């Protein structure tokens, strides 16, 4: 049955008693809002570590070498990166919701291990579990939101998703800083993580609904680009082809992957070394918590604007400009020696990251066919979160050899180079920049609907 000759799908839903499936932010507002809340809890699980853990390693476990102190970020990044890849494949095979619930189950023991850890090895194992959990939960909420909204509002959807996640990182980093200042590095800051894990597991199990049929609906009505640029990216790509296209061959997908890797490379640097740099300058744990919160706070709030702007202006130049702004901010951190300068640099770094983060995800959604989009998101996030591990290793080695500020300068140069790669190699991916739809397609405000039974005929 074709999309144009099908009987009125709303009538069919009433007749057959099956729930109608619709694409669009307004049509799926309740589930979309629920997933925003769930992703805020995912971000909170990450935020519980941003202020406290680098200081815990130095003060309670006596870690002196920067490379050893950053080992928790290294294992977190490796675990999350690998899990991102498999999360996309599992979401396509088994559905989105089971993957989300599994991620929360893995998260439950993490704050308990951090509270009771008798050695740094426990912290390492806890961060392996946190990386697996974040890979399953954050990847899946991204895919589910892309499923729900359709093609026209992807940037806005990703802005809302990432704003919730990193806004929660900021708030939690700030709260844990004050808790650590008032009650010590353990256990008070990690009690927040226990609450986040319980809420996230409960909501994901009892209230979140499956969204895989929304992706199938979009795939049934998918319209190719007029310029033929994606003609080789058909719906039958296997896992190896998806990996190759997203990582190396397709210009926009591979440009996004390398930019994501470098973005999280500098985030890993900020997470692991900034608190130590600030503490070395004599700042209190409370003020370090403020600085640790400013960066993700501006990053989170800024995405509410930049995600929507990318739907109007396009993706490419927001990404390239954002990477350049990050490089400038990192240079300012390396030059600074006061709370005021570092707070300004952190805000600038957050602003640059807010231009990049949702826009990269939206560009992946623009290019990848709905039939393998979850896998492409997984591959992109494999590279992006591999940046945590690369940043921890690179920054630790350089900091041990020549100092923290030198490590920051090296990462600033890499970030600027990544922005140049995007400017030279990436093309504009947003649909409005290259065509008008030739046929009716489901967009954010579409009233098109289809029942699950009808959709099976399309597939």
TrEMBL record:
Localization in the cell: Cell membrane
Residue span, Major facilitator superfamily (MFS) profile domain: 32-430
InterPro entries: MFS (IPR011701), MFS_dom (IPR020846), MFS_trans_sf (IPR036259), MFS_Transporters (IPR050171), Sugar_transporter_CS (IPR005829)
Keywords recorded for this protein, A-Z: Cell membrane, Membrane, Transmembrane, Transmembrane helix, Transport
Transmembrane feature ranges: 66-87, 99-116, 122-143, 163-184, 190-208, 268-286, 317-335, 341-361, 408-427
GO molecular function: transmembrane transporter activity
Chain intervals for the UniProt region annotation (Disordered): 431-459
Polar residues composition-biased segments: 444-453
Principal location class: membrane
One GO CC term on file: plasma membrane
Membrane topology label: Multi-pass membrane protein
Protein's UniProt name: MFS transporter
Source organism: Pedococcus bigeumensis
């Amino acid at each position: 049955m074709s999309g144009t000759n099908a009987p009125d799908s709303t009538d069919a839903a009433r007749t057959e008693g099956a729930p109608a499936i619709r694409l669009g932010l307004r049509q799926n507002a309740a589930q979309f809002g629920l997933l925003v809340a769930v992703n805020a809890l995912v971000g909170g699980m990450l935020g519980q570590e941003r202020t406290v853990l680098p200081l815990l390693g130095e003060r309670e476990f006596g870690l002196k070498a920067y490379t050893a102190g950053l080992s928790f970020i290294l294992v977190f990044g490796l675990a999350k990166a690998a899990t991102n890849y498999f999360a996309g494949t599992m979401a396509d095979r088994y559905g989105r919701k089971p993957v989300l619930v599994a991620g929360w189950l893995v998260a439950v023991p993490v704050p308990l291990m951090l509270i009771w850890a008798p050695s740094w090895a426990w912290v390492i194992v806890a961060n392996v579990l946190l990386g697996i959990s974040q890979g399953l939960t954050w990847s899946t909420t991204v895919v589910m939101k892309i499923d729900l909204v359709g093609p026209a509002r992807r940037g806005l959807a990703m802005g809302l998703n990432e704003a919730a996640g990193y806004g929660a990182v900021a708030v939690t980093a700030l709260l844990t800083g004050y808790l650590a200042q008032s009650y010590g590095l353990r256990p008070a800051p990690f009690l927040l993580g226990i609450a986040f894990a319980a809420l996230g597991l409960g909501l994901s199990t009892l209230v979140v609904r499956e969204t895989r049929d929304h992706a199938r609906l979009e795939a049934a009505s998918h319209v190719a680009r007029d310029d033929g640029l994606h003609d080789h990216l058909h719906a039958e790509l296997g896992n190896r082809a998806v990996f190759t296209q997203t990582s190396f061959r397709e210009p926009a997908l591979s440009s996004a992957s390398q930019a994501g890797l470098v973005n999280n490379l500098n985030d890993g640097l900020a997470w692991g070394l900034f608190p130590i740099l600030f503490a070395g300058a004599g700042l209190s744990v409370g003020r370090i918590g403020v600085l640790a919160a400013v960066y993700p706070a501006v990053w989170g709030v800024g995405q509410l604007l930049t995600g929507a702007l990318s739907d109007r202006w396009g993706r490419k130049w927001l990404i390239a400009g954002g990477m350049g702004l990050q490089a400038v901010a990192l240079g300012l951190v390396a030059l600074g020696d006061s709370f005021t300068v570092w707070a300004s640099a952190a805000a600038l770094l957050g602003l640059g990251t807010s231009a990049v983060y949702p826009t990269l995800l939206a560009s992946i959604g623009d290019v990848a066919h709905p039939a393998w989009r979850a896998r492409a998101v997984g591959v992109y996030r494999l590279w992006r979160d591999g940046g945590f591990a690369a940043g921890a290793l690179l920054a630790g080695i350089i900091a041990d050899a020549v100092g923290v500020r030198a490590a920051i300068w090296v990462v600033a140069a890499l970030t600027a180079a990544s922005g140049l790669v995007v400017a030279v190699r990436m093309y504009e991916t947003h649909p409005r920049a290259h065509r008008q739809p030739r046929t009716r397609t489901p967009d954010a405000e579409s009233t098109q609907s289809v029942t699950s039974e009808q959709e099976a005929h399309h597939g």
